[in-house]
Amino acid sequence: MLRIGLTGGIGAGKSTVSQMLVDHGAVLIDADSIAREVVAPGQPLLTRLAETFGEQILDDDGGLDRAGLAAAAFVDAEHTEKLNGLMHPAIRDRTAEHFARHADAEIVVHDVPLLVENSMTPAYHLNLLVDVPAEVRLRRLMDSRGMARDDAAARISRQADDDTRRGACDVIIDNSGPVEQTRDTVGQLIADRIRPFAANLAQHRRAPLPRLELIDPADRDWAGEAERVIAKLNYGTEARFPVEHIGSTSVPGLPAKDVVDLQLLVPDLAAAEELAPVLAELGYPGRRLADHLGEDGTEEKWFHANADPGRAVNLHVRVEDSVAARFARAFRDLLRTDDGQRQHYLELKRELIARTHRPAQGLDPDANHAATNTYAEAKEPYFLTMRRRLVPDSFA
After folding, report:
1. Residue 247 CB contacts under 8 Å (≥ 6 apart), including other chains
2. Nearest CA to 248 among 134, 335, 173?
3. C-alpha span between 225 and 130 (Å, rounded)
4. Alpha helix segments (H runs only) across 38-111
5. Virtual torsion, Cα 169, 280, 367, 361, nearest 10 deg
């Protein structure tokens, strides 16, 4: 199951986009519907709320009087905490029931208005933001819902700001234009990313490598993307192991292949093997490989890569005190601080890519994979020299 988190500020048109996703075959789990479901007449939570806050929270028909509950629960922090202590577990458990009911679904979309505010994004393979500038949402709320400007502005201000949402989500769907334009955007997203991601996830298969070329870092947010991936890995592995951003994309200002390199550090290879199926379910299938240390030296590791075709990731699962782990960290730190070495490495990368580049590359996944491997192998003599400098004890 590909788990997708969907969010957007009030007035952004999130329900419109969620219906488009359903039209393409996704199963929808709606957080607002669940919040209403758990307090419906006859539900145990409604009884507990009445016992806690009094019968005045019920209307004449025995249903929930939301205004009455708000008046009783938001009088002070203690009462609000009691409300949250009742509501949150009930919503969490009911949500889990919905996910379990659709365990065989290919794609499940969880529509959560406060996905970012409640720090829920790490729980999903992919997070989509229905994005409309706050000023446009303000006008929509006034025009379509008849809200007074101050009321609409107050509601918007209680949610995360636009930049915070954009930084937390993997995909931004611009819904500020005509609905037909949004429909085309969603259709393209389904075809190019979501459906292939779901298929790769089900087959524990990595996505094709991106074209071998150096990208201007000004055109990417590699630090933000690495942060989001690391958060998902930490969530899925219960933060048992440290994860580090390494490689060229971890060096500010350095052009690089559009691949985020990470290393996850484990105490031994047995832990790496045990972790492999967990990482595969998170969207990073892998296999046992070895780092080449030069002079015919090797060091075993597990190597995992992205099932998501929209974000290339190399995840190296290494023993925490291994030579390769120490070198990756030391080399990253050197490039971050040494302008001359950073420039030298960039010139080397440009030269090697020029040797391996072919016009058709990027169109043929097999040819691109071969070119990438050739490029990696061509850097080994340089890396051997740098290892002697940065991890000299490994050659003793």
Report:
1. 256, 259, 260, 261, 314, 328, 332
2. 335
3. 18
4. 44-53, 66-73, 77-101
5. 0
Pick the CATH number of 217-395 from 3.30.300.230, 3.30.450.20, 3.30.460.10, 2.60.40.1890: 3.30.460.10
Residue with token string 């006008």: 139
Tell me how crowded residue 242 is: count the other CB atoms within 10 A of its CB.
12
270's enclosing H/E stretch is: helix 269-281
What are the residue boundaries of the structural domains of the chain, listed by start? 2-203, 217-395
- Tell me which amino acid residue 313 is: V
Distance CA 299, CA 279 (A): 21
The letter for the amino acid at 207 is: A
Per residue in 291-311, pLDDT (tens digit) is: 988 777 889 999 999 999 999
Using CB atoms within 10 Å of the CB of residue 97, give its burial: 0 to 12 exposed, 13 to 18 middle, 19+ buried. Answer: exposed
H/E element, 15? helix 14-23
Which helix (DSSP H) or strand (DSSP E) does residue 154 occupy?
helix 149-157
Q: How many CB atoms lie within 10 A of CB 263?
A: 23
* Alpha carbon 63 to chain centroid, angstroms: 39
Instruction: Supply the DSSP symbol for 215.
Output: B
- Check if the beta carbon of residue 260 is closer than 8 Å to that of residue 225: yes
The least confident of 137-146, 274-283, 315-324 is: 137-146
**pLDDT (tens digit, 9 = 90+) per residue, 359-368?**
545 556 666 7
One CATH from 3.40.50.300, 1.25.40.10, 3.40.190.150, 3.20.20.70 for 2-203 = 3.40.50.300
Beta strands in 180-334 (DSSP E): 243-246, 260-266, 286-294, 297-305, 313-319
Which residue is it, tokens 């234009």? 177
